[in-house]
């Protein structure tokens, strides 16, 4: 009996194909939109408001390359685990193991950051209501536990919940944008508040670190590959629609916040959009943006649990990790053991680690994954040229998006090193040690012949 076998009748069970295009959009945008509500503004503190805008569009270009590359490869390798499944089929076991870890930690750390933000917001409300001793810790724990339970109960309900609250959070940004009347100077004071580049072009480079927060996680649409009804159509369409949605939302967010707040304050705000709403002196806008911040953080944490558990589940199913994690719940058809195992990991980081460190951990893991994607698509095109296998989407201008992605990732590594060099080195050491553990101990359990489910011809040169 395998980890995917029902003990009741001996039949193999698997994840359900129940998701539609809206769910895929919600998975991609829902995991990221919280970046418009918090986190991106630390780029302002690194180099000023103009530097943050440059970082926003620079990162937008990076993620457009990610979205195009992901759309081609994932619509062809439609399996849970996303980039992990791609690495397994295209590169090899050691790379697949590492990519799986990048995914799990990128999403789990993002989940922890969202829980920290939610706890902070509830604490602010408690203080405003007169509860001076209100603590954020209980709400951090309750948020992670509730969302883990929701994921445990079924993917359709989980992502329908994310779809609804993500749509509301996006609409609230649009409402605030038009409420501040960008066509007039009634609220927006860019002529008074924009101060150029206070730290020069080095500040622009440093701002790239948090500019990624506008888009980090859009590649999570790939994790739905095994549960969406029409992956060949839905994954490319909704990944590209998602990146367009985020480009619009991020530009509106920067415009609002940089026109209402001095960059010195904006660069350290925990909830910049909510603070912008407060500056309008509109109670309705304050309420809407407070709700939007809550909704965006909930949607992101919810999608993070979904994505991290699928990557962990896929690694267990292929025996890259203990096979117990490859189990599917016989009733809810979810990777319930993977979901439960990652809960305490998220709780530890959310409870004890500072927000900027957690964000950096997520960003660095994501950067490592994007670096792999650039090499991955080049190998994919080389081993299986156009026409050799069926592709539902072919990204244009190959190999330039991959080359551009490598250049942008290199610049962002340097930006992270400027502010968090020690953490960058520590994380690289961690992943090297994990690779050694896999090569020396775990690889002997992997059955490579059982992993390859794609009906492809032999790659060119083999």
TrEMBL record:
<dbReference type="Pfam" id="PF00324">
    <property type="entry name" value="AA_permease"/>
</dbReference>
<feature type="transmembrane region" description="Helical">
    <location>
        <begin position="159"/>
        <end position="179"/>
    </location>
</feature>
<feature type="transmembrane region" description="Helical">
    <location>
        <begin position="24"/>
        <end position="43"/>
    </location>
</feature>
<feature type="transmembrane region" description="Helical">
    <location>
        <begin position="199"/>
        <end position="218"/>
    </location>
</feature>
<feature type="transmembrane region" description="Helical">
    <location>
        <begin position="50"/>
        <end position="69"/>
    </location>
</feature>
<keyword id="KW-0472">Membrane</keyword>
<feature type="transmembrane region" description="Helical">
    <location>
        <begin position="239"/>
        <end position="263"/>
    </location>
</feature>
<dbReference type="GO" id="GO:0055085">
    <property type="term" value="P:transmembrane transport"/>
</dbReference>
<keyword id="KW-0812">Transmembrane</keyword>
<feature type="transmembrane region" description="Helical">
    <location>
        <begin position="359"/>
        <end position="379"/>
    </location>
</feature>
<feature type="transmembrane region" description="Helical">
    <location>
        <begin position="89"/>
        <end position="105"/>
    </location>
</feature>
<dbReference type="InterPro" id="IPR050367">
    <property type="entry name" value="APC_superfamily"/>
</dbReference>
<dbReference type="InterPro" id="IPR004841">
    <property type="entry name" value="AA-permease/SLC12A_dom"/>
</dbReference>
<feature type="transmembrane region" description="Helical">
    <location>
        <begin position="137"/>
        <end position="152"/>
    </location>
</feature>
<protein>
    <submittedName>
        <fullName>Putative permease transmembrane protein</fullName>
    </submittedName>
</protein>
<feature type="transmembrane region" description="Helical">
    <location>
        <begin position="400"/>
        <end position="418"/>
    </location>
</feature>
<feature type="domain" description="Amino acid permease/ SLC12A">
    <location>
        <begin position="30"/>
        <end position="438"/>
    </location>
</feature>
<feature type="transmembrane region" description="Helical">
    <location>
        <begin position="283"/>
        <end position="305"/>
    </location>
</feature>
<feature type="transmembrane region" description="Helical">
    <location>
        <begin position="424"/>
        <end position="440"/>
    </location>
</feature>
<dbReference type="GO" id="GO:0016020">
    <property type="term" value="C:membrane"/>
</dbReference>
<feature type="transmembrane region" description="Helical">
    <location>
        <begin position="336"/>
        <end position="353"/>
    </location>
</feature>
<keyword id="KW-1133">Transmembrane helix</keyword>
